[in-house]
Amino acid sequence: DTGVSQDPRHKITKRGQNVTFRCDPISEHNRLYWYRQTLGQGPEFLTYFQNEAQLEKSRLLSDRFSAERPKGSFSTLEIQRTEQGDSAMYLCASSESGARGYTFGSGTRLTVV
Amino acid sequence: KQEVTQIPAALSVPEGENLVLNCSFTDSAIYNLQWFRQDPGKGLTSLLLIQSSQREQTSGRLNASLDKSSGRSTLYIAASQPGDSATYLCAVGREYGNKLVFGAGTILRVKS
Predict the structure, then answer these.
(1) If pLDDT is split at 50, 70 and 90, which confidence band does A80 have?
(2) A95 touches chain B (CB under 8 A)
(3) A74–B contact, CB cutoff 8 A
């Protein structure tokens, strides 16, 4: 088990373009979370899945954001019509039902120019 | 709404010092509390997890305590080393398996 994997590590995009990030959780973890972190701040919750069901979405997740977790395995986070304010580190985490804590990936750094 | 505060925001100490990082939270109805380490531009590495029924957890030179009734946790680092330099984040979980609420972190610099 190699932990939580995120791809890409870095993404630079022009304002108005769409971007998609991928997260592969630890295989036996049925819960998957997305967080966003801006410079000097702690991560902020965006959304989470239990298996393939999206159980909660933050108000931070505007209608330009969509997340999926088909088949309860990997997850994708898409941002449409990116804005400069979307520039941040996007972090994925997973946990198992036994609530043994959360394992985070290395994140995807998004820069919108 | 749960709010998590970490004090100090930044700390610079000479190598070998013992130090304490503080975390406070406004809603004591937590399920667990987790301390993370984050190196610049990297993801989060879990250090210690304390369940709400526990008072402390230890791993090597690290010791974390939890006082749920007063809404406080501390992370104690013994004999600090330059390799300990990083941002330390505290996060609380409200319910079983639910989302975490993070503090803004403490930036630690250990000088050699």
Answers:
(1) very high
(2) yes
(3) no
Q: What is the mean pLDDT of residues B80-89?
A: 98
Quote the CA–CA distance of A3 and A103 in Å, as a whole number: 7
Distance from the A78 Cα atom to the nearest Cα atom in chain B, whole angstroms: 20
Which of B28, B9, B11 has its CA nearest to residue B77?
Answer: B11
Q: How far apart are the first and last CA of chain B?
A: 41
- Give residue for tokens 């941040």: A88
Which amino acid appears at position B2 of this protein?
Answer: Q
Q: Which residue has the tokens 């330059």?
A: B82
Tens digits of residue pLDDT in B18-67? 999 999 999 988 989 999 999 998 999 999 999 999 999 999 999 999 99
Under 8 Å between Cβ of B108 and B88: yes
Please count the CA atoms within 13 angstroms of the CA of A109 that sit on its side-chain side.
8
Cα B62–Cα B64–Cα B69 angle in degrees, nearest 5: 175
